[in-house]
Design a protein that fits this description.
The chain is mainly beta. The chain folds into 5 domains: about 10-80, Immunoglobulin-like; about 85-160, Immunoglobulin-like, CATH 2.60.40; about 165-255, Aromatic compound dioxygenase (Protocatechuate 3,4-Dioxygenase, subunit A); about 260-335, Immunoglobulins (Immunoglobulin-like), CATH 2.60.40.10; about 340-484, Distorted Sandwich (Coagulation Factor XIII, Chain A, domain 1), CATH 2.70.50. Helix content is about 0%, strand content about 50%. The protein is built from no helices and 43 strands. Strands 36, 38, 39, 41, 42 and 43 form a 6-stranded mixed β-sheet that branches. β10 (about 85-90) and β11 (about 95) form a beta hairpin. The two termini are about 50 Å apart.
């Protein structure tokens, strides 16, 4: 018999203060219940569990890490750290730099701004604490490690990491390749600021700065969003330090622009007009939209100008979705509307012993690559067999775990969000193919090369209230190596 003990509920009548000064407009979160303070700093939160809890405030830091709540009404004052102002000048070679970007965070709070025409900056609303981050322009950067006291401070910044590479991008016929993105990525894990990025001009020439020195892998892209890099056979570039320069580098790439043509159909086989289709290779950033088109009256679509590689196609009608994979230069059909179950599967790897969750779902195999380059998307396939119906929607958690608490989060709903576990029928095999980036871990830190393990499970819920479907089989199912 399962016994569930419910803690008595508590109500909070609170006030947020800096000393004796009330703070209005602060967002207080307790046990995932949020409230915004009034102008007098007051707030009310009902029906939270009694006991010890950790309050969260945005954008403030409470002086007391925990609160003890009793059943019934609790009158509580939450004292927070006072705001301070950090201001200063961003310089390069001693001269103020306009429009330089500045970003710092203390783990919970993020602050960012740009310098003015004289290189001056201001970061209001900060609290005392330890901050890391950086400041940069297109040509140089500086890593920052600040300890901020509970008072306004003046903090100047010198952009002293300015290693650069000059060169040209040409295709296999020695013709210059214009308007492509060139990136130099650090071979070993480093600061997210430590990479060169630039765009070729009409003659295919480029100048990339912004590097601190070390070994850098050159990469070339048509766009920085959704497309793979152009095939490039070149050794990493070495810069001795942040003042070094390499001239005359020649990058030869496969600059073919290919197309994917296809049709969107529903489960009955009828063509679907005006469906939105998105194509992505897994290189998702925030600098450009993903390639997307709409189907015509016959359900047909065409993506043109794609780099060579494998793409995930996602179609959305507003009422139903579907996915497919296709190579650039090929044709594809995307089926929308519910799960795509099978009765058979042919995975490349199978478990030595059964992997079963709650006698409802079984992992019967997987396709996991032996290795991928850091920064390239990783594609894997999981094969689930439905044993009994599942009443609640569970997602698949996939963690690619390395050392030192490092892991890549590839959690997702099966078949790209359209195959909820509530739609699994006993006997069906759900083939779940998905891709995800490998450049950074779940905490936003660059991943180093090395061995990683693949952990899989089924879960539902939200932060602070996760629920895993029980299984007797724990531990990784496979391993993969991230290559430099």
């Amino acid at each position: 018999m399962l016994t569930i003990t419910m803690l008595p509920s508590a109500t909070i009548h609170g006030r947020v203060m800096v000393g004796t000064v009330p703070i209005g407009g602060a967002v207080v979160v307790i046990e995932e219940i949020a409230a915004t303070t009034a102008t007098d700093g007051s707030f009310v939160i009902d029906d939270v569990a009694s006991g010890v809890t950790e309050p969260r405030l945005a954008p403030y830091r409470p002086r007391t890490a925990t609160l003890t709540l009793h059943a019934g009404t609790n009158d509580i004052n939450i004292d927070v750290e006072p705001f301070v102002m950090v201001r200063g000048t961003i310089r390069q070679h001693g001269t103020g730099v306009p429009n330089a970007r500045l970003m710092v965070a203390d783990g919970d709070n993020y602050h960012a701004c740009y310098s003015d025409a004289l290189g001056r900056f201001e970061l209001p609303g900060m609290t005392a604490g330890h901050y890391t981050g950086g400041a940069d322009t297109d040509t140089a950067f500086a890593e920052l490690d600040w300890t901020v006291q509970a008072r306004d401070i003046e903090q100047d910044i010198e952009l002293d990491e300015e290693g650069r590479v000059d060169g040209v991008v040409v295709d296999n016929l020695n013709a210059p390749v214009a308007n492509v993105v060139v990136r130099f990525e650090k071979v070993t894990a480093s600061s997210s600021f430590d990479r060169g990025r630039c765009t070729t001009d009409s003659n295919g020439e480029f100048t990339c700065g912004h590097m601190a020195g070390g070994s850098y892998r050159p990469r070339v892209f048509f766009t920085e969003n959704g497309q793979p890099d152009l095939h490039l056979d070149h050794e990493p570039i070495s810069l001795p330090n942040g003042k070094a320069r390499v001239d005359g580098l020649r990058l030869v790439v496969d600059a073919r622009r290919l197309a994917i043509r296809g049709t969107v159909k529903d489960r009955s086989g009828a063509s679907v007009a005006r469906a939105r289709v998105v194509a992505s290779n897994g290189h998702e950033g925030n600098t450009a939209p993903l390639a997307n088109v709409f189907t015509d009256d016959h359900g047909a679509f065409t993506f043109a100008g794609l780099a060579a590689g494998t793409y995930t196609l996602e179609a959305d009608t507003g009422e139903a979705t579907g996915t497919a994979t296709a190579e650039a230069g090929s044709n594809a059909t995307v089926v929308v509307g519910g799960c795509e179950p099978s009765r058979t599967a042919n995975p490349t790897s199978k478990p030595a012993q059964r992997v079963v969750w709650d006698d409802r779902a079984e992992l019967i195999g997987w396709d996991v690559p032996q290795s991928v380059h850091v920064g390239d998307p990783m594609t894997m396939t999981l094969y689930f067999k439905s044993l009994h119906s599942i009443d609640l929607p569970f997602d698949v958690f996939v963690h690619i775990a390395g050392g030192e608490h490092r892991w890549i989060n590839a959690d997702h709903t099966p078949q790209s969000g359209r195959c909820s576990t509530t739609g699994w029928n006993p006997g069906d095999v759900i083939v779940d193919r998905f891709s995800f980036p490998t450049g950074i871990d779940a905490n936003g830190v660059a991943n180093p090369a090395g061995a990683y393990s693949v952990e899989v499970g089924l879960f539902r819920g939200h932060a602070g209230g996760w629920q895993n479907m029980p299984t007797a089989s724990t531990g990784p199912i496979a391993s993969v190596r991230l290559e430099p």
